[in-house]
């Protein structure tokens, strides 16, 4: 299955990319429930999750989808997802571990994005559902595409949505203004 982003010819121009912001929403990979006494915040990835996070990292690297900044929940499973993605992408891109992103609602995530520095044209958020899925639907201007239907059906662990937004300043981020350019899940990458 070809999962490369399909971009309009107009959006392919360098000028259009300069006038856009890109958000990568990555839900943490599959976590372990083996130890039920463990606090939710401290649950690690299971083996399937480790493989999925590495697959997503390779996909991002192969497609040249490298974020300028990574914002990551402080939960163990999100940090482990980050580590496995960075193992492929390299760790020379700033990554911030933020406790406020743990199980954050869409409004909290949206407000955090509006505080991103203007030197970053693209940001990856590694977090949790339902916040990430709700944020995606908050950002996307609905066009009733197959990609949007796929995202609406389920945003599984290890799922990655790439959303492009008009504008050059994060503080001007608006709801329902983005375009869903890509949505992949780990099974698409096997």
TrEMBL record:
Gene3D superfamilies, A to Z: Phosphoglycerate mutase-like
Residues involved in substrate binding: 77
CDD domains: HP_PGM_like (cd07067)
Organism from which the protein derives: Oleomonas cavernae
PANTHER family: OS09G0287300 PROTEIN
One Pfam match: His_Phos_1
Protein name: Histidine phosphatase family protein
InterPro entries tied to this protein: His_Pase_superF_clade-1, His_PPase_superfam
């Amino acid at each position: 299955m070809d999962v490369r982003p399909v971009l309009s010819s107009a959006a392919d121009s360098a000028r259009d990319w300069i006038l856009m912001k890109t958000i990568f929403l990555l839900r943490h990979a599959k976590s372990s429930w083996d130890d039920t006494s463990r606090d939710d915040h401290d649950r690690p990835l299971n083996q399937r999750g480790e493989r999925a996070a590495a697959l997503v990292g390779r996909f991002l690297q192969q497609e040249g989808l490298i974020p300028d900044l990574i914002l990551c929940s402080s939960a163990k499973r999100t940090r482990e997802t980050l580590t496995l993605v960075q193992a492929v992408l390299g760790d020379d891109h700033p990554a911030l571990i933020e406790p406020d992103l743990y199980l954050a609602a869409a409004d909290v995530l949206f407000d955090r994005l509006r505080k991103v520095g203007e030197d970053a044209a693209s940001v990856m958020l590694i977090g949790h559902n339902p916040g990430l899925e709700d944020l995606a639907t908050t950002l996307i201007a609905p066009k009733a595409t197959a990609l949007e239907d796929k995202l609406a059906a389920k945003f599984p662990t290890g799922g990655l949505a790439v959303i492009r937004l008009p504008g050059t300043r994060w503080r001007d981020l608006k709801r329902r203004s983005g375009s869903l350019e890509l949505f992949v899940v780990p099974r698409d990458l096997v």
